[in-house]
Amino acid sequence: MTLSSAQVEVRDLTPRIGSELVTDLDTLLSGREAANIRAILEQRGVVYFRGLQISDEHQVAIARTLGTIVGNEGDEGIYKISLDASVNQRAKYLKGSLFWHFDGSLQPYPNLATLLKAVQLSDTGGDTEFCNTYAAYDDLPQSDKDLIADLRVVHSAEHSQYYVEPEMSYDEVAFWQQSPTKACPIVWTHQSGRKSLLLGATADYVVGYPVEESRALLARLRDWSTQPQYVYRHQWEVGDLIIWDNTGTMHRAMPYAADSGRLMHRTILAGEEPLQ
Ligand code: OGA
Ligand code: MN
Fold it and tell me: Which of the four, 48, 100, 118, 127, has the lowest number of CB atoms within 10 Å?
């Protein structure tokens, strides 16, 4: 299937995930290709645009052609992603982004998509990896599809913080436990009929499973989903704009120093599909 159109050339980066989209800024801003780009995103999981001189205003305008923007604390569509607490007060929570996750796992609807633009890079580290959880689900052996068909996982902010701070104090645990948890199916059956997996750093435990079995299953499914054939690793250039389909992928930043200056500008599109 060719996804390219007259105005957008699709250059696949790996067979199962990731494409560079070659187009021009006017086309993106006009929204003429928005429906096409959404279809490409759903097929390819993650796309990027390079060399288009996309300002913050452009980024917000492009996002609006694709869906409905979700704000973060009065940010007008641009939220600063940095591990430096003097740039983002929630830097500690954002350290969870170094581990496989999808965005908005604790929200009523997971976000539709995230736009992330590189403003400043770290000298070392700081690539971003993405995995395709549609493809990972499709390839599961039937026995695993049967096993997980009706399983639910409770997601919590607290769980993702154990990756960042393995020996949290009582006060820290109590703080993170104030965030509401949310039960999600492991298998998300979309309105399209396609199925993807919902896992990641906020995935705390499988409902009704003994503790060890729950941990083992979550680790096994994450290992499966993040095998090299499902993964695209993006090496950023300043100005790159990435968009990922947050409903059929997970992502993580590769380690970088909090004081490296790495800064990304993020815009989030609201989820449109409820979870069953
Ligand atoms: C995010 C995120 C990864 C990165 O913004 O949601 O996970 O590489 N970012 O900064
Ligand atoms: Mn994220």
Answer: 127
Question: Where do runs of H (alpha helix) occur along 45-88?
Answer: 56-66
**91 vs 258: CA distance, rounded Å:** 9
What confidence tens digit (pLDDT) does each residue in 117-167 have?
A: 999 999 999 999 999 999 999 999 999 999 999 999 999 999 999 999 999
Contact of 124 with 219, CB cutoff 8 Å: no
Contact 43 CB / ligand 1 (< 6 Å): no
Ligand 1 centre distance from Cα of residue 209 (Å)? 31
Query: Ligand 1 pocket, 243 CB below 6 A?
Result: no
- The ligand placed nearest to the CA atom of residue 260 is 1
- Pick from 209, 216, 201: nearest CA to 161: 201
pLDDT at res. 1: 58
Nearest partner of 67 among 43, 46, 37, judged by Cα = 37
Q: Report the pLDDT averaged over residues 209-218.
A: 98
Q: What is the pLDDT of residues 248-259, one digit of tens each?
A: 999 999 999 999
